[in-house]
Amino acid sequence: MSGFLAGLLIAVLPLLGIGFWLGRRTARPEAPGELGTPVEHATFQTLHTASLAAPPLRAGLTEETARKSARRLRSLLGTDALCLTDDRRVLVWDGVGSHHRAEVMERLAGPLETGRGEAFRLDCDTPDCPVRWAVVAPLTVDDRVHGALVACAPRESAVLVRAAGEVARWVSVQLELADLDDSRTRLIEAEIKALRAQISPHFIFNSLAVIASFVRTDPERARELLLEFADFTRYSFRRHGDFTTLADELHAIDHYLALVRARFGDRLSVTLQIAPEVLPVALPFLCLQPLVENAVKHGLEGKTDKCHIQITAQDTGAEALVVIEDDGAGMDPALLRRILAGGVSPSGGIGLSNVDDRLRQVYGDDHGLVIETAPGAGMKITARLPKYQPGVHSPGRIDRP
Predict the structure, then answer these.
(1) What mean pLDDT comes out for the span 153-174?
(2) Buried (b) or exposed (e) across 361-375, using 16+ Cβ within 10 A?
């Protein structure tokens, strides 16, 4: 991630330079009542225009994102026309001279293959066409050319060649960030699939065995448990969205615990203390249930005495603080560190490391799980969930700008 941020910084600095240069070209004494120098105004305008062009590009290079950003990019360069292409076609042409589209694509073969920019004269039979030169700057992500930015002007200009190259570098960084976002989404989806694969053989077998044990002796109880099982599996294997609400995750945990209680009886007691104001908080899907399942495993399985699990969710202002604590067997801290680092736990589970990884990916490294444990001392797991994080919302909710 730091490499991308460094690239972003490198790409922003040329934009500042362009703004500074424009300001110097138009410098004049500051008029009474104006705020800032012409240089400051030009720099601000450059950054403001770049900030408006960036959001569409963060979704990747498509016809729609190119259309939304092209006018802003043309404003940055001050050219008569600008087009964005992928490796096969013109995605958008903004400005005059659109009859040059086919000619531009014919001349892009070299730059798209080599990744090097170039400038060339446009052949035109239209007497009043204002564009006679084109400057091509390739758009690259991970050393692979995805397309090109082409700026068209009335005459050849060394300044335009350099400015187009710097703006293309900035666009390329936005596309790299888009690729990073896409990779993160695919990784999160893969980890959710891994959790589902873990749930399938372990939990489904035990739940069906418990339900079967009640079919003859207590049919009504078996029916209730079957409904709990259906609700939990429906939630766990849903296909809609990577995020959910704390309320929905707690409902799923309630269904899970109902099935666990049917198996272990009064050996398990659970206390919940949930602040109502944190129930709408969005969080990664299947983020808390694996932690409760971990508490059940370490608190009950392989033991004959009782276990108490406490689940609390508090409002701490900007965050929801969720704590899951059990009084079970606990764990050697050294073993826990190996598990969180990606090692296999003795039970073969991946729940703790999976949840820890996803929280860090979504919220940052300072929002990983905080786990306190020792052999024979139980385990306390704390998760800090920001109430608002860009891109994190439950299905049906839309972030407003």
Answers:
(1) 89
(2) bbbeeebbbebebee
